[in-house]
Amino acid sequence: MIGMMSTEVTAMVTMRYGLGPAAKPPVYAARGELGRIWRLDTDRGTWAVKEALVPVAEAAADDDVAFQVAAAAAGIPLPLPVRTTNGCVTVRGPEAVFRVYEWVDLGPTGADPADLGALLARLHRVGHPARGPVVEWFAAPLGRERWQALAASARAAGASWSAPLEAHLGALFDADALIRPPDRATTCHRDVNTENVRRTAAGALVVLDWENSGPAQPEWELAALLWDLGDGAKAAAAAYGGPPPERDDFAMALAVQGHLLDFYGRRALDPAATEEDRTRATARMEAMLARPLTADAIVRLLDEVR
């Protein structure tokens, strides 16, 4: 059950970001993996207030905002981030961290595969320098011990996704061996997909959810997008232009898959997690294990896009 944003928190957000007085109470708009989104109408406009559900460091938020500003300057359509009156990106409330964006009215559909491929190519031409190394989530295998621990926990709990995880365990072990350290990196969005590239109510494309952006190799991000699209991969690859990715370029997609399955699996089995979180995590596990990325799947995908 989603509550309301308190009047105290609303007043804090409007004051710190200089948004003007709230015209009415914030309205819950959406829930993502990293937070909740509220629509806030004030006398100065309409804003998207993101309430983080995970820890957020100001330095990291400042980095992703710098990338957003560079992308916007290069013509990438996005809701512009809003800084506080003293130049910060985030504000820490009593129980959560908040950040603010311009509000965008979305239409009912996401981008088609060709749109995604062409837009990703534009994003990669921004060439924003990477700050820091590529973190393990995007570049390191989960490892046999953690795979086995997850499978054992699922088996003991009688999880609905235990059997498919067991069935794919050998292939997931083998896929870990394909993950290699990056050769080079630039700043990438790292979450380009049909959920985060949408059409506005007016029909224009807009790129959302930049909080996951950071260092990665462009080829890795292209490979991850092609896998995510499935049947639309060939159209996206053609619109992106240039040679298709190689097998090794799926390193990031494989690393993220492993860490996501571990994250969702542990959350689905966690009695301390909310029912909403457990339900969402279980659905994610079932969907991902119905179509896991493996060495054989990479070969089939590359045959299709070449």
UniProtKB/TrEMBL annotation:
InterPro entries linked to this entry: Aminoglycoside_PTrfase, Kinase-like_dom_sf
Q: Name one Pfam family in it.
A: APH
Domain Aminoglycoside phosphotransferase spans what residues? 32-237
Give the source's domain of life in one word.
Bacteria
Protein name in the entry: Aminoglycoside phosphotransferase domain-containing protein
